Give the backbone structure.
Amino acid sequence: MGRKIIRNSERCAGCSLCVLACSAANFGVFSLGKSYVFLERDDRTQKFVLTVSEECTLCGECVRACNYGAVEYGDENPAR
Amino acid sequence: MRTLLVELDEKRYSIIEDVKLRLEAIGGLGLTTTLLYRHTDRRVGPFDDRNHLFFAAGAFVGTNIPTASRCEATAISPITGYFGTASSGGNIGAALKFCGVDGLWIKGKSAEPVYLVIDEKDVLFKDARELWGRDTYDTVDALKAREGRRTEIACIGQAGERGVRFASIQNGYYHSFGRTGLGAVMGSKSLKAICLKGNGEVAVVDGKRFMKTSRTIRERVVSSETFGYTRRYGSMVVSDAYNRLGMLASHNYRGGSLPRWDETRGRRAFEERYKVRDIACFACPIGCMHWSRIKEGSFAGYETKGLEVTYVLEFGGKLGMEDLAQVFMCGEACNRLGLDVISTSSVVAYAIELFEKGMLTEPDLGFSLSYGDFTSIHRLIEMIGKREGVAQVLGEGIRRASAYFKGSSDFAYEIKGLEMPVRDPRGRFDSWILGFITNPRGGDHLRLRTPTDDVKPAERDYLYEPLTLSAAEVEKIDMPQALKDQIFGVPPSRVFMPVMAKYSEEFILLLNSCGLCIRAPVLRAVGPSLMAEAFAAMYGEEMEAEKLLSVAQKLFTMAHLFNLEQGMTVDEFRLPERFYREPLKFAGGERPFLDKAQVEDLLQRYFSLRGWDEEARVKEETSERLGIEAWKNS
């Protein structure tokens, strides 16, 4: 049973630290586009949606970067 | 360093590269100060086409250094006529960096309303005639629909268009470049908005060293004893203490506290009745901002960002509004019209006092005006923002209005022409309050914050404020040891205010140049040596704390020199007279009026530490030592 990145967008505060951590670890630069984690924001309502690309390397940098509990490790097939 | 020069008259742009500038100007406030000092003619008016408008993202913005989000805007201030500058958080600084530039220099004026669209490759000048006259929320809505919802937008509302001297530049819906009226400078250029659409990247020279420093800063910020409270309440954490200690500027500085404050306007009232969830600026692990919902009353269901304590101290304290829902709505009105909250609230408080004294009447206004009355206050805010009727005079700011309303200067609370914020100096005279007087941008509380900021009672000798941190906590502060010894004594026992004031102004200037926030968890956690380490790793230039502080000293002095060259004299370094004459009453008793000789002595000690003479003129040897080149009018 593998691990995967669990997204809790409702807890997301919109800081982009997960995106920056991913881009730095996997692409060697800070970028909002060159990353495997993406943040979509609705600025008027300050609601945020996180997505993780299929190419995610499970390096865990986004999990370590998030201070809001919005990105966590979880099981790929959690027990029902 | 890359600065994008946009010439509005000619509708053309160019990139100015200057590699040497990084070490001299750092970024953010340091960069805008340097550009203003070098390129802005002295003695020109704020609405003259020679008044350039500069923006710059802090040096670390775009990276993951915790809280590195801040962007600075700088020009000659319409309200003071001096060095005008304001900082904003959110995402705008990062958006500028992702357009591939550190700074933006807006030159000249457009003949017709225009907005800019900037990305890594191009600058477009677009017709804004259809946007002119619209408030900032409508403007952001319209521009996101046209330019894409990811576009970051700085824009002005009706107040900036119509030249209200304390108009803000709004950043998105909820953030502001608030103080010193830069929105009116943008309006005078017929520049409605700046749209940033860059999708670029930010690289660092030594990735390993940089990430290590970033982790260290993160650990220090999130383990700060102030972190939990700041996340939970945001700046509202101090609301109750201000009332308890008698530091409120209630009813235009007439009392230091208000009845029922905690239960109506305290931090728990905010948390329990309004707060919904945490939100954060770019790269911030603190998340001091909140999303809020008004749950009952006539505004039930309204949602917005907040609540910033400044809104509560201003609308709730200075204007005496009890209902936080009404405080929220006054903040919304300022955001939409593009008005600085502090100056707006201060001008309204001044107008209420005019009204009470019969100097402003119901026939003048069309309605009566009183403290705590939401309907009339909200209506006056709208009139000020749109420059309607007698509010045109109020939109000139308190200093000019008090020349118009003869006999009102006694209750016109401003320093250097800028309306004073949030705190009564008699409540607690500390380094922070000294910074209200010395601030190059005028009566303001945000350019001197100390790493030991506190809101505890201050019984003390006038030269010292009490130190409430333990020796172990002082040990942890990132500050050169020699300075610690001078400021706190050996062993640490008190805070020597003149040295703390000078150091803290340079410290805040560095935070504003690096783009870091000035919330308490950062003030305690980050200092010159950590900033120097991150700077060295990011730019490959060796840097150390002392060097950074000397650059900050130079930049601070340049802002002061600019003010002197604009005509400022030592007379501008003063508090309103009432603070020297009347004691301050509050629920806990009475605080005495201030002793002018003591304040003057503090100022003279401060001038001397800065290398200024007793008239606050910069001594020649100081300019020489700091390597400041004299400016010559071209």
Notes: The longest helix of chain A spans residues 17-27. The mean pLDDT of chain A is 92. The first strand of chain A starts at residue 3 and ends at 7. Chain A is about 20% helix and 30% strand.
